[in-house]
Specification:
Blueprint lengths: L44 H13 L6 E4 L6 H10 L8 E5 L5 H9 E2 L11 E2 L1 H4 L4 E5 L6 H13 L1 E3 L6 E3 L3 E6 L3 H6 L5 H7 L2 E4 L10 H15 L6 E2 L1 H8 L6 H15 L4 E2 L1 H4 L16 H13 L4 H16 L4 H8 L3 H10 L5 H8 L3 H7 L12
Parallel strand pairs: 1-8, 1-9, 2-5, 5-8, 10-11
Antiparallel strand pairs: 3-4, 6-7
Helix pairs in contact: 8-10, 13-14, 14-15, 15-16
């Protein structure tokens, strides 16, 4: 197994990967916090690329927008951005914008003066002042009311806040890290989110993949939660059976890391022995993995390796023709099914079949009518396309 990319949020010291699989700041944080907020594994290649992106973004003071499904660890990523920044020695503030009313959000963010509203018995600093020189995490920012969005935009532009009930602006120096599980572009188009605020947030964007798209993190995360909850419950060493590992890998995890954490906790409570079984998790019938097990490409890669060693001319065209011929034969020369199988348009397929002499004469003439420009517009270039991983 490759060495895990592991870091501690409270220290830059690297730990032994055999004993620590995730972020761990339990020693410095209250046990009342969810252990989900202390664990993020970078075992899967998708997560490794994410870590590289975080490490590039964090040292700057740029506003960060974290996008991801509920339960994917957006707050942890925000904390890691803060920990790797120049502001790491100052406070990290966090507020859930969806959990408070508009008036309460304004008081929480900007503060209020004594007597400014019913119940304001004393003056209070808001999170912008509290997190001055540090970072402020605005979770579920897509749920902010429009009126609050306008006030927040002014604070971001002017770098100063005015408390509720006051007219005196207070300068602040805060790095904003926002997070959302909604598509802000669609929200802007629907007039639910201000376009100017979206552009202000959308400086450095981090897209968190759901757990089902980074299966290499599932088992390390499960073992991390197993260790944490096992210790809390006073259990000895508890492991996952091979069948359980397969069950966890083949489950879709619609609730992401949060669901995995709760599943491990629940399984520990009902497990009769020191080895967790598939039935302890009770995952069947909830939402099984629809696309089945991952496809093995080992034999294909071996064949391609041998072909590359031979280094024939026009290697890509040889491979492309072999793929199309095989798929066309598999689909019994049905063009619609072949195009669907290869995930290309029928027009592109017919053009390729014409090139390889696999069409009747009449259809070949029709295929020849498609220009190279049209083929490129259909989405299939003649050369392999670059894949951008950030």
């Amino acid at each position: 197994m490759d060495t895990l990319l592991v870091r501690n949020l409270t220290s830059t010291k690297e730990e032994d990967a055999s004993t620590l699989l995730a972020f761990d700041e339990l020693e410095s944080r209250s046990l009342s916090l969810s252990v989900r907020a202390t664990a993020l594994v970078f075992e899967d290649p998708v997560s490794r690329r994410l870590l590289e992106q975080i490490e590039r973004i964090a040292p700057s003071d740029a506003t960060v927008l974290i996008i991801g499904e509920t339960g994917t660890g957006k707050e942890l990523v925000a904390r890691h951005v803060h920990a790797l920044s120049k502001r790491s020695n100052n406070i990290f503030g966090a507020i859930n914008c969806a959990a408070l009313s508009e008036n309460l959000i304004e008081s929480e963010l900007f503060g209020h003066e004594k007597g400014s509203f019913t119940g304001a018995f004393t003056s209070k600093d808001g999170w912008f002042e509290t997190a001055n020189k540090g970072s402020l995490f605005l979770d579920e920012v897509g749920d902010l009311p429009l009126g609050m969005q306008a006030k927040l935009l002014r604070v971001l532009q002017e770098r100063e806040v005015v408390k509720v009930g006051s007219r005196q602006p207070v300068p602040v120096d805060v790095r904003i890290i926002a997070a959302t599980n909604v598509n802000l572009e669609e929200a802007v188009a629907a007039s639910h989110f201000r376009a100017d605020l979206y552009y202000r947030f959308n400086v450095a964007t981090i897209q968190l993949s759901p757990l089902r798209e980074r299966p290499g993190d599932i088992l390390p995360l499960a073992r991390h939660f197993l260790k944490i909850y096992g210790t809390r419950l006073g259990y000895g060493e508890i492991k996952l059976s091979p069948a359980t590992e397969l069950t966890l890998l083949n489950y879709d995890w619609p609730g992401n890391i949060r669901e995995l954490e709760n599943a491990v906790h629940r399984a520990l409570l009902v497990c009769p022995g020191n080895r967790l079984r598939p039935e302890d998790f009770k995952l069947s019938g909830v939402r099984a993995l629809e696309h089945g097990p991952l496809v093995s490409t080992t034999s294909l890669e071996s064949a391609l390796q041998r072909l590359c060693e031979q280094a024939p001319p026009k290697l890509f065209e040889i491979i492309e023709e072999a793929v199309i011929r095989t798929a066309f034969d598999f689909c019994e020369e049905n063009q619609v099914q072949t195009a669907r199988l290869l995930d290309i348009s029928r027009n592109v397929l017919r053009h390729k079949l014409g090139l390889y002499g696999m069409l009747p004469h009449a259809q070949k003439k029709q295929s020849d009518a498609y220009s190279d420009a049209e083929i490129r517009r259909e989405g299939l270039a003649q050369q392999p396309q670059k894949v951008y991983t950030d």
